[in-house]
Design brief:
By secondary structure, this protein is of the alpha+beta class. The protein has two domains: 5-58, no CATH class; 61-121, no CATH class. The chain has helices spanning 5-18, 23-36, 43-58, 109-121; strands at 61-67, 82-88, 95-100, 103-108.
């Protein structure tokens, strides 16, 4: 029977909570179990699910901000509890793209140029 990344993440969370003083041993045991079940390919998804669960538990929203250059100091610009991940994307040319959950705000120069192009071609 194959388990989902969500199920694995819940198991990892339970192992770590069960033995908080020895997280390394719990993590090692978990990795060995994944290897024995030939499920190591699911590790990126498991880690993502684990982190999302940790953030939900703390009431923190994950916000990803794409800018053409590396931006610092973004955490102070949001009025909510947020884990801000700044990522560089040179394809944007300028502006910013913000993602949080299912919401995506694209205020990049590239997107503005696409909107102008569409408006002119109508």
């Amino acid at each position: 029977m194959r388990y989902t990344p969500q199920q694995y993440a819940q198991t990892l969370r339970a192992l770590v909570e069960e033995n908080p003083r020895d997280r390394k041993a719990a993590t090692r045991q978990f990795a060995q179990t994944l290897a024995s079940q030939n499920a190591l390919s699911l590790l990126p998804d498991i880690i993502r699910e684990y982190e999302q669960g940790r953030l939900r538990e703390k009431g923190v929203k994950r916000v990803v901000v794409y800018t053409p250059e590396r931006e610092t100091g973004l955490k102070h610009k949001f009025g909510v509890k947020a884990e801000v991940v700044a990522q560089s994307d040179v394809r944007l040319l300028g502006g910013v793209v913000i993602e949080s959950g299912d919401v995506r705000v694209d205020n990049s120069i590239k997107m503005r140029m696409e909107r102008i192009k569409e408006a002119l071609l109508k």
